[in-house]
Amino acid sequence: MSTMKPYLFNLLLIPCLLFLNSCRDVNKAKSFEQMADRISKHYVEDSRVDRLEIEHKSTFQGLLVKGYTTIPEVYDSIQAVLSEGGFVVAQNNFRLLPDAKLLEGKTAGIINVSVANLRSKPGHSQELATQALMGTPIQVLDFKDGWYLVRTPDRYLAWLEPGAFVAMRPQEAQGWFNEDLRMYTGPTSVMKSEEGDIVTDLVFGNLLRYADTDWAEDKMVLVELPDGTHGYVKGSFLVPPLLQSSILRTEALLESAFANAGRPYLWGGTSPKAMDCSGFTKTAFYENGFVIPRDASQQVLAGKVVELTPDFHNLKPGDLLFFGRFREDGSEKITHVGFYTGEGRFLHAGADNGRIVEQSLRPEDEDFAEHRLKSLLQARRLEPGTEGVVPVGTAFTDILKQ
């Protein structure tokens, strides 16, 4: 009986061992993927406010892992899985954000333009996710392709170009909010230099710092932008911001809402320049001293439920109405929100209208919006002290603590 030569046997054995190792690597990678998925489902309830982004690749040297999370518990869980789960890890570049080392400690910032446009992904051509007004504090989390991943006071995550804000250490950013802080409450206008040159445009809700020594509401007064630039605005348009309000007056809320009637609809807009439906409701609350969640599907979880009836008798002016449809599994998909204004009427920013308008939910009215009545799913009353209704000052402080 002939025997196989050793070298030939080895040539046949090596591919078999590589195949077996490869199978084990694939199984290990699959196991890691499943564990990461379970961790994500447990901790990440809404990717708009918290993230777990993780990539892994199996090699002969072991797992290559990269990505990030904004949740410390997720970071700890992933690291425990990698170190205690029997995995051979060749490279571990999984990070907890904010990445203070990458950002050189500047994990905070202040918006420095009248309206900053935040994108869903890095790049000017990407979807407009939300906006932030001048003077708003942000948490700076990461840097990629020339863009910064930031968190706004409503905890929304999006990408922002560096020219729109001033990067700072958290302590520096906290110093911006002192007794000289003022809110601009005039019409869309401009701030001018001493020589009369335009420095920046301004919209209702912008936060500036008063820098004058001789204030008078009927004159132009000196103010300061977050980056230290000075200019002049009319004193009567500057008021102390409502930072720690505990009262929300319905009349004032609806006055703010109606003041924006006629503004154009803009997907992702949350400023007086243009707004989407939830940006409109969010802006009215902000002007009255409160931060609420960003999107309609988040706002529907805030406040308290108000039972809907055919005659709307349970509703009060200022309540939020939520519209949408039912998914195949029977759950609600909220896609639209507006203010109830009384007598079966509501004020909203709808893409189908093109601008913020008031319409009726009653068939007998001339401006009856039939498709809105058919898609009306919920009503909520957002009051101070209820879920998701946070004083502006508290939201600002919390974002700079993280």
Structural class: alpha+beta
CATH fold name of the largest domain: endopeptidase fold (from Nostoc punctiforme)
What CATH architecture of the largest domain do you see?
A: Alpha-Beta Complex
Q: What is the CA-atom radius of gyration, in angstroms?
A: 27 Å
Strand content: 25-35%
Looking at the structure, what is the overall shape? globular
GO molecular function, one term: cysteine-type peptidase activity
Organism: Neolewinella aurantiaca
Protein name: NlpC/P60 family protein
InterPro entries: NLP_P60_dom, Papain-like_cys_pep_sf, Peptidase_C40, SH3-like_bac-type, SH3_16
Characteristic terms for this protein:
cysteine-type peptidase activity, 8 helices, hydrolase, single chain, 24% helix, SH3 type barrels, 402 residues
Write up this protein.
With 402 residues, the chain is an alpha+beta fold. It has 4 domains: 79 residues; 69 residues, SH3 Domains (SH3 type barrels, Roll), CATH 2.30.30.40; 59 residues, Roll (SH3 type barrels), CATH 2.30.30.40; 144 residues, endopeptidase fold (from Nostoc punctiforme), CATH 3.90.1720.10. The protein has 8 helices and 27 strands. Strands 21-26-22-23-24-25 form a 6-stranded antiparallel β-sheet. Strand 8 and strand 9 form a beta hairpin. Helix 1 runs antiparallel to helix 2 and helix 4 crosses helix 5. The chain is globular. It starts with 5 loop residues before the first helix and ends with a helix. 38% of the residues are buried. About 4% of the residues have low confidence.
